Structure formats: structure tokens, C-alpha cells
């Protein structure tokens, strides 16, 4: 027996006996140890739990109790977890479950395996007449996602549903959830239509279905009448039920569409399997040029590709969820692959038909392949043409839904304001019509718009009290104005004072800079005069013959013995003294270096009195040092002259 099996596992959305026969090889891989459909077992376990809870040893026998282990023996823990996320018979008080109250498991399993055609036949047998048919059309099957468990179900199938059987089980739950939401929304629309018909039996006579309720409160808009909409308990209950008819949308918002996107990719992606290379010997390594053949095969979850596409055709369309999950890109990719397969098949058939001739000129009789029977791993092992048609239908459905939604959004965005304005105008029109007929008093808004004589009267004459109050207000305004002017004048004075202080500070800075520049020029002039003086002195010395001629070296004679005349061995030492010319050149270079340093130091911008005083003190010290240098220089000159004189005298003595 195949369990769990659902009508969605059939190759086509419209199930038939022929399709059931074709789908048997794919369904054979979903066999389980326990017989019976998952949804039927769900009903049985809940019935068994209710029996066990009511058995207290007084009214029933212990042998009639159905335990948990007996019902779910051979079922996986994942099936039990999925069952806890679904509702059961009697949970919803809106409509009962479809007739599946069979006691035997075999009858329930045959009902599911027979397909949707057997279900429709069973429903026609149970429903007699037009009344019973309408009742059966408003009935949904148990096994839909429970209220508030959409997120839990999405997380469960995303983390644990990996095999084809588990995913087929989840798709069966999703299909029954959509059936339940569609039936409930249909019932709500019918109830709303009936309620509107009962509230407004004659819509042609009145433009709106508003009801006027009289009241004695004078603060109302219409005097003693109030406009209100008729509300009852049935409308509140219908709103509560409308929230409950969006379980599939809640599942998709909780990440269910991303799960379906991943399942779609796994279904149409072929599985590659590489053959192991043949090794001749254990010691020898395989040759480098040995080819490894790679083959493709259908994905293990390929048979659920068509059910996923059928599910996507019926889900509530939401552009944000579709773009977020990026399932539209995968559908386009699948569509291109299927179109390529069909185009290649047509070309291969045309080539093979032209080359099928024997030697005698006759054609070979062979069984030609048909496009309808073409299967491929990209189509999940299902017929390529059928999958292509369903994909095109899905894309067309979503395109229409997106266009309808965009038009609806534009109408809502543009007509929301005008709709409210129109409702307000209709409301005031009803009030005005009741006032003209004498059923209500004149509204307040009409009194303001009516140019009656009372509104055109002259304004009242001012009294002394009003005059005094006006004078007080004028005096207060004048006083306030004076205070403002005073504050403005004080602010302007402060601003002028600050500007004057800023100008004075700038002038002081400029004056200090000029003084420093004058001091620097004076120092440079003084150094220049001293340099000229020294050069002039060196020129005079050269004219006297003291600089051009080198001074004679001094000699120190040590006598070897007492005999002065007969002394042959004499030790002579010469002492040479540099002239003042060389000293003057070095001083000139040193003065130039000091001028460059002084130029760099005097380029500062900010000076105060203390710095100027220190500069004057430094200049006095410099004058004292220069005077000392001149005195020393004069002493050296005198010493040099004396030395030269002594040197000449010694030479004269030697000659003598």
C-alpha cells in the first residue's frame, strides 16, 4: 500500500483513471509500512484520544479504546509532528469535515488512491437534491494547518522534510489548507451579501444604506438627529472569521514561499553521478588520460515538481513575498529549459526521419517517439509538455494577479480622499433634505453659511470698559516695543565697542612690527659700518708692507758648548704667526652668517613691551662686546708691532 499518497502526486491537475495508471511507478517510491492515508489516520487518532478521555470504566469497555501506539504504529516521528500542526474534525465550528467517518482503514486508503474523480463521485452520492449539493460544496476536508501554527509548520518542513514522501505529505496539507480558506471566504462573502440585502432592501430609492437614529442631545450636528451606521453582532463575528480564512497567506509570510522555492529547485535540478574509473592493478596508478564518464539522472524529489507548480497556481499572490523569495527567477529558468528541450526534440525528429531508409529504398518501420511522451530529468521525470503547460499557466496567472493588484492600488491611492469627501457630502445632503421636509432642525453648519439678516447686523458699539481694555493693551504693546528697541540699541553699542577694540589691537600689532623692522635695519647698518672699518684697516696694513710680506720666522738657538765661534751643531726652531688678514676674512664670514640668522629671527609678528625691552638690553650687550673686541684687536696690533720690532732687532744682532 502507498501511504501517504495524495491526488497532487498525479501528473495532471485533472485526475483521471488513465493518469492514475501512469502515476503508479512514481507513487511506488512513497510506500510506507502502515496502510492508510495520513489524513485518515489523523482523524482516527483524534477519535481514539476522545474515546480514551471519555472512558472512565463506567460506560465503555477497555477494549474499545484506541491508543496512540496502535494508530501510529509504523509511522515516522515527522508524520506525527506534522499531524500536531493540523486541525481535525470538530475543531472549527464553521463547517464540518467531509464524509470520512469510515471505521476501516482499507476503505479510507482506497478513497485517496482513487483520485479526485472518486471523491467527486462520493460527494454526489452523499448529496441528494439541490439543497444537499450546496451543503456539500461548502464542506472542506480535515488536515489543514491549524490556527496559529503556520510558522511552526513552515519551520518543521524546512528543517526536516528532505525525502519525496515527506514533501508530498506537506503538499497535501497545503492543498487542504487552501481549500479550507477558499470555502470559508466564499461563505463569508455570501453572508455579507445577505446581510447587505437585509439591511438595505431598496437600494434604488436611497443612495446609501445609512440609518438615522434620533436623540435628544443638542450637541449633535443635525440638532436632535444623529447619523450612524447600523451594526449588529453578526458583522463582528464575520470580521473574526475573516481573520481565520488566511492561513495559507500566513504560512507564506512565515517563510513558506522560500521553502517551496527550494523544493522547486531540488525537483528540476538533475543529479549527476560519476562512474568510478577502472583500476587494472592495485600497485599501478590509473593513466592520466583515462576518461571518467558522468551521467545525469532525475532528482529523487522530481515527481513532486508538478504538484508544487499546481500549488503555486492557487496560492494568494503577494508581490513582496515573491520578489523576496526570488521564486519567479527559478520559474523563468525552468521555462527556458523546457522550451529548449521541446525545440531540440523537434530538430532531432526531423533529422531522424530523413535518414531512416534501407538499402532497397524502402523506409524502415519503427515506433516514433511522440512529444507528449517525452520525459527528462529537468521535468522531474514527468512529461515535458505537461510541465511546460502548467508553468505557462502559472506565469500567466501571476501576471494577471500583478496587473490587477497594481490597478487596485492606483484606484485606492487616487480614490480614497474623494471617497471620503463623497460620503461626507451624501451625509450632509441627507441632513439638508430632512431639514427641508421639516423632520429635523436647521444644522449649525447651515446657519453659518446662510446670509440671514441676523448675520448682516452692524457690529456692537464699544463700551468704556472695552475702551479701557484697549488702551491698556496699546500701552502694554508700546512698552514692549520700547524694551525691544532698548535691547537692540544696547546690543549695537556692544558691537561697536568690540569693533573699536579689535581695530586698536590690529593697529598695535602693526606698530610693533614697524618698530622691529626699524631695529633690524639699524643693526644691519651698524654691522655694515664695522665691516667697512675693518676692511679699511686691512688695506692700510697692506700698504705698510705688513700683510703682503710674510714675517720672518723667529729662531731660538741653543749652543752646544761654551765656544760660541766654533759651534757647529745648532738647534733652530721657527715660530710662524698668522697675520690679521686671515682673521678679518673669517670674521667677515661669521658676520654674514649672523646676519642670516638675525633675518630669520626678526620675522615674528607679535611683540610686546617686554620683548622690546629685552631686545634693547641685548643690543647694549652687543655694543659692549664689540667695544671689547676692538680693544683686544688694538692690543693685538700693538703686540704684533712689538713682536715685529723685537724680531728686527734680533736679526740685526745676528748680522753683527
TrEMBL record:
Residues 98-133, 182-211, 219-238, 345-366, 443-550, 577-656 are annotated as: Disordered. Residues 107-120, 199-209, 494-509 have a biased composition (Low complexity). Residues 222-237, 454-469 have a biased composition (Polar residues). Residues 345-360, 594-639 have a biased composition (Acidic residues). Residues 122-133, 480-493, 510-520 have a biased composition (Basic and acidic residues). This is Uncharacterized protein. Signal peptide: none annotated.
